[in-house]
Amino acid sequence: MGRHDSDDSDDQVSGLGEHEKVERDSAARAAIGDVIGSPRFWILPLLLVLVVMSFMAALYMGAIADPEKNLHNFPLALVNEDSGGEVDNSDGTTSKQNFGDQVADGVISTAAESGIAIHRADRTTALNELNAAKVYGVVFIGANFTNRAVALGRSAVLQAKPDPMVIDVYINRGSGTFASAVTTTFADRMSSEVNAQVGKQLTDTVRATLAKADIGFSGAAQLAMANPVDVQVVEPVPLPDGSGNGLSAFYYTLLLILAGFTGAMMVSIVVDAMLGQTPIEYGPFYQLRTRLAISRWGTLAAKWTIMVLVAVLQSALFIGVCTAVGTALPNAFALWMFGVLVIAAVGISAASMMAVFGNPGLILNLVFFVILGLPSSGGTVPLEASPRFFAWIADIEPMHLVYLGVRAILYFDADFDAGLGRSVIQCFIGLVVGVLLGLIGTKYYDHKKWRRYPGGMTLPPRLAKLAE
């Protein structure tokens, strides 16, 4: 390792006298004073930190500040199998009605006002969409909905006990904990609205029928007529234990992104130090190795090779750690392969950014992979409950795409239609883009003979002035 020699020893070796030493120290203090006394020495790092951190705060807090206000195009499916029935009228006649259609029309129109997009589907299609994370919930109205309403109305007269009117709302917590919470809240509101709609109609009909028969309308019967529909939230396929209530996919996504992003930074620091590009420091110990005559492209290729090895091993270690702590991993091998792809793609792209843009590449990586990635991932708050800005950038942000893949592997049996297919394809595209960026950028720099050593290239006048 390098060592720190005393100033006296340096002076003895160099043969400096007392006068020369005073002049040297005076010049050094003057140079340090010039740099430290410049406003840019204080303002530039201050502004850099304040701007980046404020930008992060605006994105993170803006994404979660008011999910209900930001709700838009929140996808649900509605299945109405009610075939209708003969409904008693107040004049003693009957008419053909379909309470299921009436409820479905009211639910869809009311939901649209609050940003929830409900489309009609048959039972098989709707459940397939729920199990592929294409909808966050399914509203199901059964085949005997109208007939049960008729039976409930007649029970007030005949003193019978009819089957209840039931609307099931299916959820899948694998689509996201917050998404399931939004669907459950919607079910509660729908219960109030449907009971008000159907209850008023039943109450008016029963009251007229009882009045005509000169029979009293008891309080218990009125209460039953006012709340005739039981809205039940059902989870057809519960998540296994060890799923973190649907959050394990998000945190595993975060692990993969950070392994690629921070892994590339650590590899870059170590490789540059070993090649003599930057100093090695351990506490007070300092060493700058002899600079090796390796090209920019050769340096980047070495970093890429190490990142591929990191991806293979780190993805396996993540599987081992998660297994040890009790995380549910139903498709461990698929998760390992996907992790290798993600870590390699992110790590290679991050290394290319630093190779091409230098120190600003660190900030660009931070912004692209983390600052923009976390609030647009959809892992905590669904994109349909965040400002539309995040839905726009989620199409290119790696964290959202990786989350879709991890979620599909952990909760949807590695179904390509549940987002895994899209995730794999776009991860490969990102990998290719990262490789091309690094290859073209470093080869161009080498061709221009822009070397990585002091005096290896001359900065353009404006950039040189900024650096000074």
State the helical fraction.
55-70%
Order of the strands making up the biggest sheet: 4-1-5-6-7
Low-confidence stretches: 1-9
Number of helices: 17
Net shape: elongated
Q: Summarize the helix and strand pattern as letters.
A: HHHHEEEHEHEHEHHEHEEHHHHHHH
Q: Name the average pLDDT.
A: 84
Query: Would you count the extended β strands for me?
Result: 9
Radius of gyration over C-alpha positions, nearest whole angstrom: 33 Å
Question: Please, could you describe this protein's structure?
Answer:
With 468 residues, the protein is of the alpha/beta class. It has helices spanning 7-14, 18-37, 39-64, 67-70, 99-113, 123-130, 145-158, 177-212, 219-226, 248-274, 296-325, 332-357, 360-371, 388-394, 398-411, 420-447, 461-467, and strands at 74-80, 85-88, 94-97, 116-120, 137-141, 165-171, 229-234, 280-282, 285-287. The strands form three sheets. The chain has a five-stranded mixed beta sheet with strand order 4-1-5-6-7, sandwiched between helices. Strands 2-3 form a two-stranded antiparallel sheet. Strands 8-9 form a two-stranded antiparallel ribbon. Helix 11 (296-325) runs antiparallel to helix 12 and helix 12 packs antiparallel against helix 13 (360-371). It is elongated and about 120 Å long. It starts with 6 loop residues before the first helix and ends with a helix. Mean pLDDT is 84; it is low at 1-9.
